[in-house]
Write a structure and sequence with these properties.
Aspartate Aminotransferase, domain 2, 12 strands, Aspartate Aminotransferase, domain 1, 2 domains, binds pyridoxal-5'-phosphate
Length: 417
């Protein structure tokens, strides 16, 4: 028997991460036989056409200009006030919803999700998200004694599966005081799917109704990690406006991160932003989440906040930032278009992709197919119901022909789509 000294609730936890595992194998092989001969479709960061990790130029410049004090200071636990203003502005753009809006700095978007689960659901509760979701949600729930529950994101017609969403929420509200719902849209990881404006209207009307007159709350968490690569700047933010004027018992907490939009992945900088019509709920939001920050990582990364703020307070730099983001949004779109066009031509199915870092190819036996692809030096991520391809990181040259290879492998392995 393996010796263990972990406390009972921690026993058996292990962080076997399929994504990092496949990425490590791809890198090791590239080192051995050359980068040109390996296709690494696992990386969830933007790589340029030469396979280099992109750090936006305007962000590089902002880092180089930081003073020692800006870099090493302890920041306030809630975050610098100018950072909090900047994240609210960057997140909502011209679609700032009405109501009390407050922000707390967090360790990336992950920090937001941790705090929401920790502070707004109870031990033993279910937390709802879609069947296609970022794997870390499950770990965060499990690590906090919660269970991640899944509704079906996409119906057989390729639209948002509102019926499945309603069924799960109705059941959860009947059983729990708070129902935490994480919706990763737009640019859903791993599908690239997004709710339409009408979907959001339906969701919000239903949520209002399901808790109306009840001592029950909905905590709605739009996870917008990939927002800045999801469309035209103001257009893709319009849905935020809908979060104004909801009742007191629907609290919206937007999970915002600088990881992708500022290419600051490893800097661990994000923010949770609440929208509520009730001042007490907004004050409580700051108090409890600030407390949890103090009780976990303490204060956030000063350098990252200051680099972000120094860009955002200068309209010329914001224009540069927007232009750089638009460039990479277009590059990712070109790659995705190549893949989708070729997939259609060879009869490979993929889930409805609108924007974002990933495309999902639904199938059975995803692990077997990924294993077979690895033999051809192509590295992809197996999911429960398909395979994830990172269009953010595979060049146009390398993505060309990939759909046909995948189709061949799916057929050879006998996987069903
Ligand atoms: C769906 C989703 N949400 C949130 C995040 C937040 O990441 P981070 O904690 O690095 O900001 C990620 C990153 O991969 C993600 O894919």
């Amino acid at each position: 028997m393996v010796k263990s000294v972990a406390a009972p609730q921690a026993k058996g936890k292990s962080a076997e991460d399929k994504i990092f595992g496949a990425n490590n194998r791809a890198n090791a092989l590239a080192e051995e036989i050359g980068v040109d001969k390996v296709i690494n479709g696992t990386v969830g960061s933007i790589l340029d056409e030469d396979g280099q990790l992109v750090m936006l130029k305007v962000v590089q410049d902002a880092y180089k200009a930081l003073t020692p004090k800006e870099i090493v200071s302890y920041a306030p636990i809630q975050g610098y006030p100018d950072y909090l203003d900047a994240v609210i502005d960057q997140c909502f753009g011209q679609s700032r919803p009405d109501g009390y809006i407050r922000a707390c700095a967090t360790s990336g978007g992950s920090g937001v999700l941790h705090h929401v689960i920790h502070n707004y659901s109870e031990w033993g509760d279910d937390v709802l998200t879609s069947d296609y979701h970022w794997g870390a949600y499950g770990s965060m729930c499990h690590d906090n004694g919660r269970t991640l529950r899944e509704f079906e994101l996409i119906d057989p017609n390729g639209a948002f599966n509102f019926a499945s969403f309603k069924d799960h929420v109705t059941d959860m509200v009947s059983k729990q005081y708070n129902t935490v719902i994480i919706i990763n849209s737009p640019a859903n990881n791993p599908t690239g799917f997004a709710l339409t404006s009408q979907d959001w209207d339906n969701v919000l009307a239903f949520l209002k109704d399901v808790v109306k007159g009840k001592d029950k709350n909905i905590i709605l968490v739009p996870d917008v990690a990939y927002l800045d690569y999801s469309g035209e700047k103001q257009e893709c933010r319009k849905f935020f406006k809908k979060f104004g004027n909801l009742p007191d018992n629907i609290l919206v907490i937007v999970a915002y991160t600088c990881s992708k939009g500022f290419t600051m992945y490893g800097q661990r900088m994000g923010a949770m932003i609440c929208v509520t019509p009730n001042k007490d709920i907004a004050d409580e939001f700051v108090a409890i989440n600030q407390y949890t920050s103090r009780a976990t990582w303490s204060n956030s990364n000063s350098a990252a906040m200051k680099a972000m703020v120094n860009i955002c307070k200068d309209p010329a730099k914001v224009a540069e930032l927007d232009a750089e983001r638009a460039k990479y949004f277009n590059l990712i779109k070109e790659r995705a278009d190549i893949f989708m066009k070729e997939a259609q031509a060879c009869g490979l199915k993929y889930l409805p992709y609108l924007s974002g870092f990933f495309i999902t190819i639904p199938m059975t036996d995803s692990q077997k197919v990924c294993d077979a692809m690895e033999k051809e030096n192509i590295f992809l991520v197996p999911l429960g119901k398909g395979i994830r391809l990172a269009v953010c990181s595979v060049s146009k040259k390398k993505i060309t022909g990939l759909a046909a290879k995948l189709k061949k492998t799916v057929d050879a392995v006998g996987a069903k789509q």
